[in-house]
Structure formats: structure tokens, C-alpha cells
């Protein structure tokens, strides 16, 4: 067990390959092949992110409150004081860390599925962009891996472009979790933050918005390609106000990561989900993946199905400080058409049948 812990520590420091070799050579672990160790590290890498997504914020808040009640209360007090001073940092683009984004753990995360990023067109560093990411899935695993880390080489494929994956603002009110997210270049999906990145942070910025949000996460069914987009026009208006080009992004396989129990309209389960969505900003999903030791059992580990994220052609958007509804509707229709073309062009290339359709709600 100590050897496995040491191996995973090496993965975080970026020395995973050397650790794998040393473990493989240990005479007292003949059953632990290099392939099995690598597979286990992939599962652990994914599981640590899933647990961070689900419980890290709440757990760190509880620990901080507990420390306040111990002899180490001064540590908690100092952290809280710093938290107050640093409160607005997420709204100004955060505090990304190249070191964290390049952790070897993210490469194991990538290889578990695997996750791929496909570039279709060059992006100019002299422009700013809004990426519309579809679909949401349960945890937006492809969005995080591609734009919150360097596992798929996003900065190399789009030189001069700095990506900011936008997520729920509530996550940045949680101690420790906020810093963990910011280190990956993740920011709150609120108007003030997006305005700052697109207007006061120079050029070469790309804000990645998961447009469908909580509503879309309730309908991420394996085998279906459904996006919530027809009435989502706020990101179009922001793009017009800042003259930021729109880029459709579709992630094939995002809905295959988990299996979800979908409640029918009118059921108590759907009622609870809608209330959470309205008042809290997210919808609690009932889902499951596979177990840690077996893909046949239920657990929190996502299914190892390929996720292929395709970044489409940018739509040039003029700067209009006060866009009319007609302006918004025009560019929204252009965006819908571009997303549809992107899906139709690449669906067969990644293994979907020609008859597969994109359903836009």
C-alpha cells in the first residue's frame, strides 16, 4: 500500500513513468504488472477529481470550522483573513498555475477514457473568444480535461490563446476548493468575471461556457446527443458587447461517462431537481458509473468510454455595445447552424452512424 501511495505521489510530481518502472521491477510484487499499475493510476486520477467535484468544498469547509474549535484555531483564522482579502480574485480571471495544469495526474486522467482534443481552425491571439461547450454531461469531464489542464495540449494547439473554463460561482466560495479550481484556470460563470476577462485582460482569451448548464445535465443520456440551446442567448449578447468571436465546441462521448436515472416530468424527483436548479444553480442528478475494482459493479468511477472534443470554426462577431434583440437572434441562428454543421461533419469520423442526429432543445 505504501508503494502505491508513493507511486501516486510521483504521478502528481510528474515522475509517473519512472515510478511505474521501479514498481514493475520490485521482486516481491510479481503480480503487479506495469499495465495494471498504470490502469490503477488512471482510475485513481479520475476518482480524485470526481471526489473533489462532489465533496471537496463541503469537506474543506467542515475541516476549517473544526480547526477553529481546536488549539490550532490561529491557522484557520489566518486562512479566513487571507480568504477575505483574496475574495475577488476569481472574478478577475483567477490565479492559474502552469505547474498544476501540467501535472502528470491529468495525463493519466486523459488516458483513462481516453480524451482527445481536435482542432479544426486556427485562432488569432489578437482576438478574444467565447467557446460554447456542448453537451454538459454529468461532470463536464471533457471540458475540464481539455481546457482546465494541459493534458491534451490546448495551449500548443492554440498558441497565444489562454482558456478559462467557467463554472458555478458557488464553488469559489468554498475554502481550498476555490484555490484548486483557480490553479487550473477555472473561473466563475458570472457576468462580472466574463466582462473582466474579455475587456480588461488583453487579447488571446477564450472563456469556455457550458451553455446548457444544469438543465442540460438532467438529460445527458448515453446514446443521445441532446443540447439545451434554443433559448440560451445570454452568451451571444456578451460576445456582441465585447466583439468576442463565437466558437462552437462539441464533445462526442460526454454523455457516455455515466448512466443517469431520468425522472419523468411531474414526478417528485423532477420537482426536486427543478427547485434546486432554480434556487441553488445546479440540479442534483441520480447517476452511477462503474466500481473501482470492476466495471460490472456500480460506483463513482466514470465508464472508460472515449471522449472526443472538437473545437469548431470561429464566427466573427462585431463589437456592438448595445445589441438589439434582432442582432442577438441573428448571431444565435448562425451559432446554431455552425454547431449543427460541426456535429454532422465529425459524427462519422469518431464512430457514430450517419443516421445519428443532434437534438437542439
The order of strands across the largest sheet is 1-11-7-2-5-3-4
Number of helices: 14
Reported for the largest beta sheet, the result is:
7 strands, mixed
The arrangement of helices and strands along the chain is HHHHHHEEHHEHEHEHEHEEHEEEHE
Cα shape: globular
- What share of the residues lie within helices? 40-55%
Q: What is the averaged pLDDT score?
A: 88
Question: In terms of topology, how is this protein built?
Answer:
Elements: H1 2-13, H2 16-24, H3 34-68, H4 73-85, H5 98-101, H6 104-112, E1 115-119, E2 129-134, H7 141-147, H8 154-157, E3 162-167, H9 177-183, E4 186-188, H10 191-199, E5 205-210, H11 213-217, E6 226-227, H12 234-242, E7 245-252, E8 259-261, H13 268-279, E9 286-290, E10 298-299, E11 307-311, H14 325-346, E12 359-360
Parallel strand pairs: 1-11, 2-5, 2-7, 3-4, 3-5, 6-12
Antiparallel strand pairs: 7-11, 8-9, 9-10
Helix pairs in contact: 1-2, 3-4, 3-6
Please explain how this structure is put together.
- The chain has 361 residues and is α/β, with parallel strands linked by helices.
- Helices cover 43% and strands 15% of the residues.
- Helix 1 (2-13) runs antiparallel to helix 2, helix 3 crosses helix 4 and helix 3 packs across helix 6 (104-112).
Task: Using brief descriptors, characterize the structure shown.
single chain; 361 residues; alpha/beta; seven-stranded mixed beta sheet; three-stranded antiparallel beta sheet; 14 helices; 43% helix; disordered N terminus
Concise account of the structure shown:
The chain is an alpha/beta fold and 361 residues long. The chain starts with a helix and ends with a strand. It has helices at 2-13, 16-24, 34-68, 73-85, 98-101, 104-112, 141-147, 154-157, 177-183, 191-199, 213-217, 234-242, 268-279, 325-346, and strands at 115-119, 129-134, 162-167, 186-188, 205-210, 226-227, 245-252, 259-261, 286-290, 298-299, 307-311, 359-360.
Amino acid at each position: 500500500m505504501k508503494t502505491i501511495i508513493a507511486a501516486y505521489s510521483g504521478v502528481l510530481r510528474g515522475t509517473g513513468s519512472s515510478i511505474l518502472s521501479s514498481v514493475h521491477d520490485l521482486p516481491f510484487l510479481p503480480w503487479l504488472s506495469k499495465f495494471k499499475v498504470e490502469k490503477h493510476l488512471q482510475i485513481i486520477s479520475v476518482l480524485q477529481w470526481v471526489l473533489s467535484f462532489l465533496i471537496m468544498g463541503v469537506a474543506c469547509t467542515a475541516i476549517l470550522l473544526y480547526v477553529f474549535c481546536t488549539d490550532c484555531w490561529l491557522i484557520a483564522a489566518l486562512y479566513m483573513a487571507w480568504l477575505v482579502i483574496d475574495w475577488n480574485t476569481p472574478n478577475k480571471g483567477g490565479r492559474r498555475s502552469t505547474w498544476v495544469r501540467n501535472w502528470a495526474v491529468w495525463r493519466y486522467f486523459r488516458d483513462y477514457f481516453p480524451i482527445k482534443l481536435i482542432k479544426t481552425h486556427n485562432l488569432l491571439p489578437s482576438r478574444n473568444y467565447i467557446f460554447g461547450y456542448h453537451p454538459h454531461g454529468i461532470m463536464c469531464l471533457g471540458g475540464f480535461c481539455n481546457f482546465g489542464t494541459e493534458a491534451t495540449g490546448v495551449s500548443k494547439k492554440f498558441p497565444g490563446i489562454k482558456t478559462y473554463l467557467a463554472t458555478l460561482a458557488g464553488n469559489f466560495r468554498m475554502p481550498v476548493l476555490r484555490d484548486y479550481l483557480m490553479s487550473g484556470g477555472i473561473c466563475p460563470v458570472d457576468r462580472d468575471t466574463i466582462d473582466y476577462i474579455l475587456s480588461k485582460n488583453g487579447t488571446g482569451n477564450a472563456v469556455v461556457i457550458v451553455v446548457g448548464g444544469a438543465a442540460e445535465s438532467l438529460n445527458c443520456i448515453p446514446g443521445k446527443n441532446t443540447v439545451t440551446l434554443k433559448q440560451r442567448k445570454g452568451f451571444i449578447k456578451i460576445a456582441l458587447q465585447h466583439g468576442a468571436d463565437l466558437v462552437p465546441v462539441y464533445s462526442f462521448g460526454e454523455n457516455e461517462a455515466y448512466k443517469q436515472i431520468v425522472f419523468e416530468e411531474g414526478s417528485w424527483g423532477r420537482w426536486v431537481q427543478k427547485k434546486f436548479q432554480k434556487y441553488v444553480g445546479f440540479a442534483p442528478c441520480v447517476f452511477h458509473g462503474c466500481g473501482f475494482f470492476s466495471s460490472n459493479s456500480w460506483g463513482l468511477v466514470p465508464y472508460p468510454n472515449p471522449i472526443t472534443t472538437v473545437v469548431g470554426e470561429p464566427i466573427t462577431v462585431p463589437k456592438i455595445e448595445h445589441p438589439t434583440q434582432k442582432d442577438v437572434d441573428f448571431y444565435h441562428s448562425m451559432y446554431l447552424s455552425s454547431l449543427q454543421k460541426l456535429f454532422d461533419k465529425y459524427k462519422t469520423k469518431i464512430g457514430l452512424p450517419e443516421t445519428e442526429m443532434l437534438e437542439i432543445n
